[in-house]
Specification:
This protein is mainly alpha-helical. It is built from six helices and no strands. Helix 2 runs antiparallel to helix 3, helix 3 runs antiparallel to helix 4 and helix 4 runs antiparallel to helix 5. It is globular and about 40 Å long.
């Protein structure tokens, strides 16, 4: 199987579809779309895709009432997205991490994470990697 590099990945229409599904809060299809790309991606870009994928799954867990699963996956996703050298792939990872950190903190404090902004992906297709 051919492995994607960051520039190939951000030019793949499936990447744009995955971002769109994520931003529509269509968590399960977003997870599937990012997972397909994750299987085909190599290097550090794979870490970025996995982190975003884990945020989508955390949201899915919240929809299903699984706060513990959401807490774990938010934490794992943040770890990957904040790791040194993680490529942004044109995504505003700082904004995503701030949002996820706020939601994770609310979960850890027994509060409602839905009082915070729902995670979204700001994408700049002109961003060079």
């Amino acid at each position: 199987m051919e492995r994607f590099q960051p520039t190939d990945l951000i030019n793949d229409p499936r990447f744009l579809l995955a971002v769109e599904l994520f931003n529509q809060a269509d968590w399960y299809p977003a997870h599937d779309a990012f997972e397909e790309l994750w299987h085909e991606t190599s290097g550090q870009a794979r870490q970025t895709i996995q982190g975003v994928l884990q945020v989508a799954v955390a949201q899915l867990h919240l929809q299903r009432g699984n706060r513990r699963g959401a807490t774990l996956l938010y934490g794992e996703g943040l770890g990957r997205l904040k790791a040194l050298g993680t490529p942004s792939l044109g995504l505003d990872l700082d904004q995503l991490c701030i949002c996820v950190e706020n939601r994770l903190q609310r979960l850890q404090q027994g509060q409602n994470p839905d009082d915070c902004t729902v995670p979204g992906l700001i994408y700049d297709s002109s961003f060079p990697e």
